[in-house]
From TrEMBL:
Residue stretches spanning the membrane: none
Residue ranges constituting the Gfo/Idh/MocA-like oxidoreductase N-terminal domain according to the UniProt record: 5-123
PANTHER family membership: BILIVERDIN REDUCTASE A
Source domain of life: Bacteria
Protein name: Dehydrogenase
Gene3D superfamilies reported in the protein's UniProt record: Dihydrodipicolinate Reductase, domain 2 (3.30.360.10), NAD(P)-binding Rossmann-like Domain (3.40.50.720)
GFO/IDH/MocA-like oxidoreductase domain boundaries: 132-258
SUPFAM superfamilies, sorted: Glyceraldehyde-3-phosphate dehydrogenase-like, C-terminal domain, NAD(P)-binding Rossmann-fold domains
Length: 342
């Protein structure tokens, strides 16, 4: 079968560390084109993967040979580029957050529907083995009713990882729109929705810029979330966890406590009310630390959805519902009120 021809738009760290290596490892893919506003960067990446280099997104999208694209640009460009790519007849894998407003997210979903092409949002936490296993345990009913949760995603900040360091777009409100909540918090809103199998219906938050004096976006946020069945919990997103990354989630249920990515060896630990403790060594979560990159499954799942003509594993609607919680957190912080998503 002819290999899918893929273009990667934006050649920063997420493209270099995740999208490009994972496409290169997929036998059904040929990396046909790369694009970046920094032409020398695009040229270097193109040479590495035997692809054509573009400086213009429009020119890349005019290439009829390209079947699908990854959108790895600053946040404010996610929606316009994704919509243009879908209208050009390309399948789209878009980095998170999918957009900077609900309206833009809705337009992306509509463009996918009209074009008949796949739109997937790169929420990789759904594919972490411990998260999938926890969802399975909760859905089975074996631990009874879920009462509460706490989830966190924090690290020292993107300046150590971004190709532009402190000068990165991550810290500029005009390009990023949102800081730690968009970079990390949206991963956790998606995870909580996925693991609980419920939508979040109410949000309260404190969103601050306290650690990065050079940033015009948030770097610390703590949110209170309530699900449709009344499960309450907290979500923290931070670029100020200075010593070590924290990507843990703890779920408090009627008959057990589930600890996800909270133990360095056992990625899921279930502590039953009876005193029994079950430990699952399922492999580590994706991390930006040295040696922390393997296969996030995002690329493979995206490719499989195209080749097998299956529904996108993280659809535009799923991406929008996760984005909504983040947008509500911003509104809550500004208005000092709880925000209802019903």
């Amino acid at each position: 079968m002819k290999k899918l021809q893929v273009g990667v738009i934006g050649c920063g760290s997420i493209a270099q560390h995740r999208h490009l290596p994972e496409y290169a490892a997929n036998k059904q893919i040929e990396i046909a084109a790369v694009c970046d506003i920094v032409k020398t960067r695009a040229d270097e990446i193109a040479a590495l993967y035997g692809a054509v280099s573009y400086e213009s997104v429009e020119e890349l999208l005019q290439n009829k040979e390209i079947d699908a694209v990854s959108v790895c640009t600053p946040n404010y460009l996610h929606a316009p580029i994704s919509i243009a790519a879908l209208k050009a007849g390309k399948h789209v894998l878009c980095e998170k957050p999918m957009a900077t407003s609900r309206e833009d997210a809705e337009q992306m979903i509509e463009a996918a529907r009209e074009s008949g092409k796949k739109l997937m949002i790169a929420h990789n936490q759904r594919f972490v083995p411990s998260h999938a296993k926890a969802r399975e345990i909760l859905a089975s009913g074996e631990v009874g009713k879920v009462y509460s949760f706490r989830t966190a995603f924090g690290h020292p900040g993107p300046e150590a990882w971004s190709v532009d360091g402190k000068d990165s777009w991550f810290f500029e409100k005009e390009k990023a729109f949102i800081g730690a909540m968009g970079d990390l918090g949206v991963h956790k809103t998606d995870l909580i929705r996925y693991v609980l199998g419920e939508e979040i219906v109410e949000v309260g938050s404190f969103v601050e810029t306290s650690a990065k004096e050079f940033a015009t976006v948030d770097d610390n946020a703590v949110c209170i979330l309530k699900s449709e069945s009344g499960i309450i919990g907290t979500l923290a997103a931070s670029w100020a966890y200075t010593a070590k990354e924290d990507n843990s989630t703890i779920i408090y249920a009627e008959k057990a406590i589930l600890r996800l990515e909270d133990d360095p060896v056992n990625s899921l630990v279930v502590q039953y009310q009876t005193g029994e403790i079950v430990k699952y060594e399922l492999g580590g979560i994706q991390s930006n630390d040295e040696g922390g990159q393997s296969n996030s499954q995002v690329i493979d799942r995206f490719v499989d959805s195209i080749v097998s003509d299956k529904e996108s594993p993280v659809s535009g609607l799923e991406g929008m519902n996760s984005l909504q919680v983040v947008l509500a957190a911003l509104e809550s912080n500004e208005t000092k009120k709880m925000i209802s998503l019903r």
